[in-house]
Write a structure and sequence with these properties.
With 224 residues, this protein is of the alpha+beta class. The chain has a single domain, classed as Ribosomal Protein S5, domain 2 (2-Layer Sandwich). The protein is built from 4 helices and 8 strands. The strands form 2 sheets. Strands 1, 2, 3, 4, 5 and 6 form a 6-stranded mixed β-sheet that branches. Strands 7-8 form a two-stranded antiparallel sheet. Strand 7 and strand 8 form a beta hairpin. It is globular. The termini are close together.
């Protein structure tokens, strides 16, 4: 039987300002930046599988599958939660690579958020953000899910309100900021964007997020 894929958006972001204010002993720079989400997104499709295998079905040219951030994110959540389930991943890339728009980081954040739901692992949002930081400094803001002022290496986030705007890029047309299409997964039953401050002890979202019909402690069908 064919696998059942679930589709999730992975939005792009802009850095409206970027100040380097110091450097940690481990070499990471300390920053002050403003993250803004824009109306441009990749699409991440996920199909839960019962055999524990994590695979990327359409690898990006020049990036080994095991090094892709989506695969690394899935493996990280699998290891953290001791979940025996696996996933097949498909990516539709629209965010230009190497342009500072956070496409890879957003894809990884989407995998963490969506698999936390689909696998039923119940990991709190703050913990997902901490896991995301191990993948890259931009990953936590995509899990945070709101325009934000960021400090530290980019992981200390406070929500800010920004006026709607049009952004003109190198590609034809204009991009609208603050799209209503994301950063929320409401259509898929995944609460991605409940506002909170990362450094202000956000609530345990795992206790209030809708649980999937199957999870790590249950039998999982192979698809339909």
């Amino acid at each position: 039987m064919s696998a059942t894929f679930h589709s999730f958006p992975a939005p792009a972001k802009l850095n409206l300002l970027l100040h380097v204010v110091g450097k940690r002993p481990d070499g990471y720079h300390l920053l002050e930046t403003v993250f803004r989400f824009i109306d441009l997104n990749d699409t991440v499709e996920l199909a839960v599988r019962p055999d524990g295998v994590i695979e990327l079905l359409n690898p990006t040219d020049g990036v080994p599958p095991d090094e892709d951030l989506t695969v690394r994110a899935a493996k990280l959540l699998q290891q953290h939660s001791a979940c025996p389930l696996g996933v097949s991943i498909r990516l539709t890339k629209r965010i230009p690579m190497g342009g500072g728009l956070g496409g890879g980081s957003s894809d990884a954040a989407t995998v963490l958020l969506a698999l936390n739901h689909l696998w039923g692992t119940g990991v709190p949002r703050q913990t997902l953000m901490e896991l995301g930081l191990r993948l890259g400094a931009d990953v936590p803001v995509f899990i945070f899910g709101r325009n934000a002022l960021a400090t530290g290496v980019g992981e200390k986030l406070n929500e800010i309100n920004l006026q709607p705007a049009l952004v003109r890029g190198d590609s034809p047309g204009r991009t609208r900021a603050d799209s209503k299409n994301f950063p929320e997964f409401f259509a898929a039953g995944v609460d991605r964007a409940r506002p909170h401050q990362h450094n202000a002890n956000p609530p345990n979202d795992a206790a209030t997020t809708k649980r999937p019909a199957v999870g790590c402690s249950e039998d999982v069908p192979s698809g339909k």
